[in-house]
Records
---
Amino acid sequence: MTTTTVASFEIKHHQYLDADGQPTQELPAFAKDMDKMRSLYRDMALLRAFDAKTYALQRTGKMGTYPASLGQEAIGIGYGDCLTAEDVVVPYYRSTGGLLKHGVTMKEILQYWGGDEGGSDYSVAKEDFPICVPIGNQIVHASGVAKAIQIRKQKRAVVTEIGEGGTSEGDFYEGVNVAGVWNLGVVFMINNNQWAISVPSEIQTACETYAQKAIAAGVEGIQVDGNDIIAVRQVAEYAFEKARNGGGPTVIESVTYRLCDHTTADDASRYDDANVKDQAWKNEPMVRLRKYLEANNAWTEADEEAMNAENAKKVEAAVEEYMAIPKPGPELMFDHLYEELPESTKPQREEAIRRAGGAK
Amino acid sequence: MAAITLIEAVTAALAHELEHDKEVILFGEDVGKNGGVFRATDGLQATYGEDRVIDTPLAESMIAGLAVGMAAQGMKPVAEMQFMGFIFPAMEHIVTQVARMRNRTRGRLTMPMVIRAPYGGGIHAPEHHSESTEALFAHIPGLKVVIPSNPSRAYGLMLAAIRDPDPVIFLEPKRVYRIVKHEVEDNGEEYPLEACFVDREGKDITLISWGAMMHETLQAAEKLAADGIDAEVIDVATVSPIDMETILESVRKTGRVCVVQEAPKSGSIGSEIAAEIAEHAVMSLLAPIGRVSGYDTVMPYYKLEKQYMPTVDRILDEAKRIMEYK
């Protein structure tokens, strides 16, 4: 039997820094700018400090369920550093890094996870989506946003994120597929942190990589070391420029490890192997960046201490603002349901207000 | 002014809004060159271009999700679901995103969109093409659910749906797409949403329906008139939220009421209307509320669809039972 190969593919893996912070190849220009690299390190440390504080707030009853980003800070901070104000972020629940980089405030993120939709009324980044909780919806929304941008002939990129487990959802394929067909300017970030709550990656797919899921949609798929912020930022920058300039979508799989529980409501010790996790800690993104900075005489223990004190102050200030937000009034259950509340629902609004002892 | 069918009225309204509002974008499966499987978008792509009238890949969840993204950017998407029976992949977006986005963002991102779907039985269609599941959508706060019953209403309500700042599920009774023609002036005048229409005034009994069943209901009213029973007939039109004031006013006048719907009886729009009447006008009732509806079973394949759907005779039987109640 004679056959011809009508399609084939390969997936490239990108890494610039190994786990010891040693360059594995010639570095991009931004990585040699020590001010830039220090600033990325500070952003990652701030995210980690914010997560730790939020966890503590939850444990003391001052916060709802919260998903931290421990171990995957390089992803949100890495792509977030490529955003312009005109770009649109369509986040999932573990997009804290990207949102912070786009100007959403720590106070707003606390307000949201503290049970108040008001936190999604962003004071900046006004076109960014609220955090998507149902898995995968955000992928299609990102394509819709990008379609509007394409129709209006604007040069703006759209970025969205999903976990590796989320790529098993139909919406993942549907959103990436239409972005391929219409050549939409979307950057799809797959954060492969090895776990979908308790289900390991090998139960999600028979593929060798998640990046190759892009291939079936005719979209470029790239894999990066998600613990290497230089690799994440470099590939994201390429994908964002491509998106803004009519080059179409890109799927970026960032390989990382979830070092924390899925959320505050989870206990990863029920399923995660402690030895594997210990190994993952040796591979995490902040240590290697610090080693890289130190090797370039760009970071000292004193810098570390000063940064930690500064970050603690920033987080503390945000927590104070958060704690000062008054409890939303019951009228808010109704006031943004429609532009104008239907007549038939008005008595229910009045009742809720009356029973709560008045509007706020 | 030309006499046009219900589906031509839909097309006329879509064309009017494409012409006058550059933010209006139509998309769905086969809506482009083919003009939709029922021809609701016939000729629109040729006139308004492939950026305004867009054929999508075959994926309903994606169609609804794209509408969310485009609406969040300030566009006014009008998305077609080819049949209501295929809308269910889109339900996740409709329920978790479309209906909630304004509330989720405290009004920052809104969803001024229309999701259109032909629905209902009676055209000898394949399985899954004939159900009436409007109550599923009516149960979701944040949506409006609109069902036109005739060409003029299809035109005026579609204009209102597209212009509405909130999401509208616009269900088109496909059995009556082409059975009557109305003189409809393409003047851009919308009909109010959240308003019932009193299509026949009467003093003895209130018959309430919407969509295709309005035709059987009006025929029943004429037959009742021949028997000396003066029926008032109300077209609910917007089945969520319902204009209960108009309905209650009529019930307080007649004291007798029968709801007619194609959908299954339990947990239906008819149930909601009956409950509201019981809550607010029970003392005006001279007889128990009646409901003529589809049966509480699966919508059958077409050999049995006529036995499933309410007929003029079933409406007459129930109306007479209500009239004779002492």
Note: Residues 13-325 of chain A form a domain with the Rossmann fold fold (CATH 3.40.50.970).
---
Amino acid sequence: MSEIAVRVGGQAGDGIASIGESLARCFSRLGWHTFGLNAYQSVIRGGHVWFQARAADPRPHSQGDGADILYALDKATVEIHAPGLRRGGAVVFDPEKFAVADGELPAGVRAVPVPTLEIARKYTSQSILQNAGGIGGAAYLAGLPLDMLHEVLRDSFGRKSGEIVDWNLGASEAGYRAAEKAAGQVPNAVSKKGAPKLLMNGNQAIALGAAAGGCKFLAQYPMTPASSVMHWMAAHAHTLGVVVKQAEDELAAINMAIGASFGGVRSMTATSGGGFALMVEALGMAGMTETPLVVVESQRAGPSTGVPTKTEQGDLNLMLGAGQSEFPRAILAPADPAEAYRATVRAFELAESWQTPILVASDLHLSENFFTVDRAEIDLNVEVPSLFTVQPNGHEYLRYQYTESGVSPRAIPGQPGLQFVAGSDEHDEHGHLISDIKAGIPKYILERQKMMDKRMRKLTGLAHEVPEPRWEGPADAPLTFVAWGSTVGAIRDAMVVLAAQGKSTNLLAFPAVHPLSESAVRAAFQRTKKTLLVEGNFSGQFGRHLRAETGLYLSERLLKYDGEPFFPHEIVARALEVM
Amino acid sequence: MGTPLPLIGKSDTKPTWCPGCGDFGVVAAVEMAVKRLKIPSHNVVVVSGIGCSSNLPHFLSSYGFHGIHGRAIPVAEGIRWANHGLTVIATGGDGDGFGIGAGHFVHAMRRNVDLTYVTMDNQIYGLTTGQASPTSSLGQKTKSTPDGVIENPIEPVALALASGATYVARGFSGDVKQLADLVAGGIQHKGFSFVDVYSPCVTYNKLNTFDFFRQRVYKLESAGHDPSDIVKAWQRALEWGDKIPIGLFYQTDRPTYEDLEKVLEAGPLALQTAGIRGGEKVLDEFV
């Protein structure tokens, strides 16, 4: 396995994420699979933020453990991150800002001074240009070719004035040369590995998947870490023909999306746990009125406001139980952007064909961090059928007709002769209320039960159409990891580490956590020897769900709820204990 | 030419309101207004939330969406944006619109979404059997306020004027003819039209009765009110006591949300193509 990880740290407002993203893009353009971790805090200026770009072969699925090169914009970054640097690594810093002695660093890690401020002053009095010298120094030490760095910087500053582009090119080259002079030859030149990869975060993949899946309307209220779904879609609204509405609150957002869906377009809303909690009543209305709806729930560390910039998988119970009484829903839980793209496309198809809300469960780790994707993994050729399919046939139109599948013919307002009222009250096949003067009358007691049965029958069909549990790794491994959502990434990386130690493991991932097909799940677990449930929450919410649905109890667990993503070494350590 | 498509009429569901309820006059006025404008019933969507008055969509032959408490407006907005070829009328009560749904009411007006909002304002919660509402009078005794209401009531017309509504009217369900004119004017108006209707609750509000209003209401058009003058409209909106004005308070022209939303320039969203087949260029930005 070969890998290189470059970490950049400083304060919020220093431009850390943009340096990190540029470095990640250098690797991905050279054809390396890359992971970019954006670690930040809920402040706009100050504090401590960092970004890590990690390129590796085999493909990295997480931020990994440790780093090789650290570009520190402040001394705090050195103190926090130096212990995680690997032998052979280096720290880029500006001696004009603070000093770093070799003795402060782990054995085999060098301090490499680069005069970033001095370089910047040759061009401008704006100190932000110091980042160019720093990124140049870090790129040199990472073994990145200067022309690739320049290509990426030229593209990222391309919309700014020619002067700014020139400054960045000049300053980054000066930093690159300064590091070369200070550190001498570096052994690990990063060579071109293949066609450029796509670098995207989970929210971009979700928004792209929504557009490809036919979404024409997105209503959303800003909330970390879901906001960038709206940002991406808004930036592409005109070219993609999607109306993006920032609503006054999450109550409005979901109700607008339901209204738009009823009105004849595929619609979506996206939020995090706090906003989703506000949407709960309307989610049930989508179930009751049988209005297709896609809801993205990007989880963050809770409860309540929690740790808004940190990750967790703590909202599964909420997603499973959201809404009074019962109605059919599915919850898809993609592991990475390629899967998030496909899951969102699928969510629109399922919502449409089953006329019920479909949830896409993401989390901060997937939503906001960067993963590489091969172009072939994103198939934009998605068929989006017209919604105006029901035609009047002279008979009485029954919007909520009892059917074997539970799905009834759906008319769209504007279609003559098919008028109906969609009601959040219980109703009969016509849509007429049976909640007031008919409630409790024997005939309508039966109607109520039949209508509940009709809606809930969809769950049986849905269970066959959501993505099945997926195996990764050798079939006969003595230990099987069980996971859902973004946690899968660190497990994949841990499996590589374990394999290098001669320990065979495999993974049973759940791209759909609900509904579970009991027979399919039980069959899958027939193949397991020992299992280890890995979840990013306090109580093992998926473990509880699995037990409730199938009777299977997974006793060995690795649960994490400190706000940080899983690191491969944590999974390796727990796996070795269990094995 | 084929046969003309049916105009709106009553549905085969009979209203379940109490005999004498003000809301009968409102549903009659909405039906008259839509019929007069000759909008085919399949191009009309009547949206509501929850409450006695929110059952209204069931009693008309148009499309309807009977949603959850307080959320009629965002559903109606979503329908408009999905298909701005439709006539969308939101209906509901004072609790639904000015209590639990007050936020949506204000924002829809500042957006100037082209829909008509008709509130059946009875100054009481009826369906939950008689608690104070956001428009109940100071001192009014209800089940939830046995010592009398101690909060100042919301004045919906004034709130609408302050929020940027471009058509602000008040009707009385005891005068269905004028009310139908006001609703028709609202539907024809390009932008958010608001018609607050005094629609007495004959069961739970013994204060604001039909007689109470009959003795007090006067028509703005008979009083020489100029609906283009927002300052005058404001003054009229604050009149309450022996004389209470009904009629059109204010009307102005302002681009609608749908006018300004560039994506809708290509026509109703529901009739546009969906998906991004063949749009591989969108992936280039990720390289």
Note: The longest strand of chain A covers residues 46-57.
